[in-house]
Specification:
transferase; 40% helix; acyltransferase; Peroxisomal Thiolase, Chain A, domain 1; alpha/beta; 11 helices; 2 domains
Length: 350
């Protein structure tokens, strides 16, 4: 009995700006800062490899003194709308009805909702009253793949069932107006908002790329490298400058043993479905795998068009590959990183 990916969809907020259009907002935000510092910040934005990003709120609201409560209220309101939209789109792609779902997983780390998003989606789409719910928080950028791993394990244990994983994120809701640290600045430069949904199935009537294997990898003694600190003004980004280097040092242990367990090498992988954490991490991956003839062009394109949308981003990359309809037998490796510090991996075969 196999578990397959049936459909992937995305949903984008109404507000967006090209990076060049955000620069004037930086002048206002940084008006009391040293001129050299202002030039440095603008250079970070211009060099982030992000041409455009979307947002739950307008740029004027992002760069305003909205309270934590006000920002979180926007996160909740818009998150419910986007979550419902991408789930509806995915169901249409799959030709499923809302009541066909047996399991719903929602993932997010950029706001606080109780009840969680899944409760609102059950009501909005009139999902089954006995549907199994799992809200996943606090796993950051890795949660999109994590949610798929949880869904796969549920479906493997329950043949004939169907699941939805919905990722909704608003990193712009975590922007800190009075924080001029590099973590806040880099976060503002690379992150954007968005939502995505992936449908999975263990029903033999459904067809799509099969999940051959999945595995998590946890870094020791790296809890302080990435995450959020809860402050009176909201969720304050924690982002260590050593993240790309740390990932580089662990890459062989993350990739090769996982593939070897499945009697594969990196040469056997046709598609690298990697989370675009940022320009530096992309450069690391290209240096490691470029000489093997592998590319991460879809990953780079998602970063360029949308920015890093935390947990939803790798699902945008997966959607790009699903649209390309890879040939039967081709294999893909999904990979994302998140707080903990951790790496999450899925091996797919079309």
């Amino acid at each position: 009995m196999s578990v397959i990916v049936k459909a992937v969809s995305k949903a984008l907020p109404e507000f967006w700006r090209a990076t060049e259009d955000i620069l004037p907002f930086l002048d206002v935000w940084l008006k009391d800062q040293d001129e050299r510092f202002i030039r440095k910040v603008k250079k970070i934005f211009e060099g982030a490899a992000v041409d455009k990003r979307y947002s739950f709120m307008s740029p004027e609201e992002v760069f305003s003194d909205l309270s934590f409560e006000e920002r979180n209220d926007i996160y909740i309101r818009e998150g419910i709308k986007l979550g419902a939209k991408c789930l509806e789109t995915a169901l249409e792609k799959a030709a499923w009805q809302p009541k066909d779902l047996d399991y719903i997983i929602t993932v997010s780390c950029t706001g606080i909702m109780i009840p969680s998003l899944d409760a609102y989606l059950i009501n909005a789409l009139k999902l089954r009253q006995d549907i199994v719910r799992l809200p996943v928080t606090e796993m950051g950028c890795a949660a999109g793949v994590s949610g798929m791993i949880y869904a796969k394990n549920f479906l493997k244990a329950n043949p004939g069932k169907r699941a939805a994983v919905i990722a909704v994120e608003s990193p712009t809701a975590t922007f800190q107006l009075n924080d001029f640290s590099m973590a806040n600045i880099v976060s503002a430069a690379i992150f954007g908002d968005g939502a995505a949904c992936v449908l999975l199935s263990s029903n033999e009537e459904d067809h799509g790329p099969e999940i051959l294997a999945e595995e998590m990898y946890h870094f020791y003694d790296a809890e302080e490298m990435m995450g959020f600190k809860l402050t009176n003004t909201g969720l304050q980004m924690v982002l260590d400058v050593e993240v790309p280097e740390t990932i580089t040092s662990h890459f062989p242990a993350i990739i090769h043993p996982f593939l070897a367990k499945n009697n594969l090498t990196i040469e056997d992988i046709d598609h690298l479905i990697f989370h675009p954490g940022g320009k530096k991490i992309i450069q690391v991956v290209e240096e490691l795998f470029g000489k093997l003839g592998k590319d991460i062009n879809e990953t780079k394109e998602v970063l360029r068009r949308y920015g890093n949308m935390s947990s939803a981003t790798v699902l945008y990359v997966l959607e790009s590959y699903m649209k390309k309809n890879p040939a039967s037998g081709e294999k893909g490796l999904m990979l994302s990183f998140g707080p903990g510090f951790s790496a999450q991996r899925i091996l797919l075969q079309w």
